[in-house]
């Protein structure tokens, strides 16, 4: 927001802070839509998780043992990441936003070239940035198609309707009490589907004793059958 604008949408997990009335009301007033990830489904916000992992590696490299001074290094890490060429776009974040990469300390070695600008006219610069964005958009769509094709190789499509009875797969990360032992059942049923949010997300009538979110990704659900077992 400091550099660009108020966000159109925010994707987050289902932490109580993000589900609170204050948080929803605040962003509602600003016109920002809030989207929440489904239970134990990291793919929902995979892009952020990858970025956070990369930033963590950069911080560990820069900080060494000076862990308490990480805030001082944040601008340097931010600048370094924004100058990296990403595999999905074949461009750096800086280049996508501004049309060029900013100068660094190393660029000062070539002082005569600093003042040679590629686009002197505003219209030429505008056309260049538009072409860049079109190229980046096409590259992202190409990569997304590749990711989807790879992910769907072993994926079976299931569509449930409200009122259907399903099994719920109990993930160790979420159902801690129910999965203390390897010999405990890996799932429970029957539970009724309350709402179909989309083809990948469903709300299930899960008893309160589980104390977990009732929104599940379709990969953790299967149609209830008396002969079906986990």
Written description of the protein model:
With 230 residues, the chain is of the alpha+beta class. Among the domains are: 83-155, no CATH class; 165-223, no CATH class. Helices cover 37% and strands 15% of the residues. The protein has 7 helices and 7 strands; from the N terminus they run E-H-H-E-H-H-H-H-H-E-E-E-E-E. The protein has helices at 16-19, 21-29, 46-63, 70-82, 93-98, 111-114, 122-151; strands at 9-12, 33-36, 165-169, 187-198, 201-204, 215-217, 221-223. A hairpin with a 2-residue loop joins strand 4 (187-198) and strand 5 (201-204). The longest helix is centred in the middle third of the chain and has 30 residues, at 122-151. The protein is elongated and about 70 Å long.
Sum up the overall morphology in one term.
elongated
Mean pLDDT: 80
The total strand number stands at: 7
SS strand fraction? 15-25%
Helix run count: 7
Q: Ranges with pLDDT <50 over ≥5 residues?
A: none
Fraction of helical residues: 25-40%
Strand order of the largest sheet: 6-5-4-3-7
Q: Please describe the biggest sheet, giving its number of strands, its sense, and whether it closes into a barrel.
A: 5 strands, antiparallel
Q: What is the structural class? A: alpha+beta
Order of helices and strands: EHHEHHHHHEEEEE
| C-alpha end-to-end distance | 47 Å
Rounded Rg: 24 Å
């Amino acid at each position: 927001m400091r550099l660009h604008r108020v966000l159109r949408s925010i994707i987050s997990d289902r932490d109580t802070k993000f589900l609170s009335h204050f948080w929803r009301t605040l962003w509602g007033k600003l016109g920002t839509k809030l989207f929440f990830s489904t239970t134990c489904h990291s793919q929902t916000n995979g892009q952020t998780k990858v970025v956070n992992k990369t930033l963590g590696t950069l911080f560990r490299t820069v900080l060494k043992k000076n862990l308490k001074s990480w805030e001082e290094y944040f601008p340097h890490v931010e600048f370094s990441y924004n100058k990296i060429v990403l595999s999905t776009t074949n461009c750096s974040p800086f280049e996508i936003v501004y049309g060029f990469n900013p100068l660094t300390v190393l660029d000062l070695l070539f002082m005569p070239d600093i003042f040679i600008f590629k686009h002197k006219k505003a219209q030429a610069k505008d056309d260049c940035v538009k072409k860049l964005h079109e190229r980046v958009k096409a590259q992202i769509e190409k990569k997304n198609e590749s990711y989807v094709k790879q992910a769907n190789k072993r994926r079976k499509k299931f569509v449930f309707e409200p009122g259907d009875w399903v099994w719920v797969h109990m993930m160790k990360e979420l159902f801690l009490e129910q999965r203390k032992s390897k010999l405990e059942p890996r799932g429970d049923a029957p539970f009724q589907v309350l709402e179909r949010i989309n083809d990948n997300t469903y709300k299930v009538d899960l008893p309160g004793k589980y104390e977990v979110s009732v929104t599940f990704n379709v990969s953790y659900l299967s149609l209830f059958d008396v002969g079906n077992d986990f």
